[in-house]
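Q: Hi! First time doing this. I have a protein sequence and I read that you can turn it into a structure. Is that right? Here it is:
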Amino acid sequence: MRPLLPLLLLLPFLPGCIVWDIRDQLKTANAQLAVVDGSIAATHTEIEQVKNRLNAMNADLGTTNDKLLEANTKLVDVQSGLTRVDTTNSSLGTLDQQLTGMQASLTRIDGHLASLSGTIGKLDGAIPFLDLGGDAPVEPAPTTEPTAPAPADASQPATTPTTDAAPRQPREQLLGTWISATPNRVYSLTLLSDGKFLLDTAAPTGLQRGTWKRESQRITLMPDSTPAAQAPTPNTTTSQPSQPAPQLVSPAPSPQTLEIAHQSTRSVTFIDGNTLIVVRRP
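A: Yes, that's right. Below is the predicted 3D structure, encoded as structure tokens:
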């Protein structure tokens, strides 16, 4: 209002149209001031809304910060767990190396024991009456078929094969005496190197004799023929010419086949039909 004060003082001296013009301009300025006041009020309202939004964003940022702190704590726990897993993996790697070394040592020991067992088996087989112990399984000796000689060539002189090149046959591991390993059972089998056998099963027929042969994992026992029994001589008082007593024909002995289920230097398991016979060295 101070800038307008000189104009008010000059109003009595100014023409009438100028006064009215100034009055109109003052009204226009007042109207514009009202519009500016409304704009300022609207601006204040918008500022309040922005302030409220900023407060809400700050609250959300605080919640997010709390969640980030919780996630960071969980990540620290996971990192600790991964460290323990790495330590466990390192320990397992060391243990695996130790087990590998132990496996190599056990393999070498197993080889030494197999060699020693084979040596003991050979000594036990070479000296039947000497018991060196051990019960290693004995594999059947491979049977090799003789190779047919090559056809003679007319352009070359015939050569006679020498007997020195013939392979040495391994000693039969079944030779000797075997007795029943089952208590309260009488079974004694003696296999001789000349192909004879002696068998005692406490049967009424008594001791059985005969020949035996081996074919792979089977042993065939062929008993000898028993002498034929004579018919009883009738007691007659009349004088008649004596005649020889008739001979009773005995049935032919049937061979007995024993299947070898398991064989070692100390024991043998036979299968006789549906019967299992386990024998051992005396």
